[in-house]
Amino acid sequence: MYSKAMILAAVAVFTSTVAAASGDMTYFNPGLGACGRTDNDGSPVVALNPADYANGANCGRWITIQGNGHQTAAQVVDLCPGCASGAIDVSPAIFDDIAPLSVGRIRVNWFFQ
């Protein structure tokens, strides 16, 4: 039988390996992105703030987004030069997975898969 301390220690080790970011999530109408691919409003895509975009090093990576009691995944395809640290800009399809488009902006947590 496992003790409570052993279980908490295992959870702490697991969660410490996932670096989560927090910030505002907004939406945009994708087209030709900074990663060189063309997407549309129904594509599961995200544009990252300059620090997380890392000069394109994260192009093609997937992130998990959590907010408003919902979770979804999106692929990095673009840079959001106006996004603050931790903020992301997603396609309407992804925003709608978390909150109605009419909200316009919502606080989320996200992390690389």
TrEMBL record:
InterPro entries linked: Expansin_CellWall, RlpA-like_sf
Keywords attached to this entry: Signal
Signal peptide: 1-20
Protein name as annotated: RlpA-like protein double-psi beta-barrel domain-containing protein
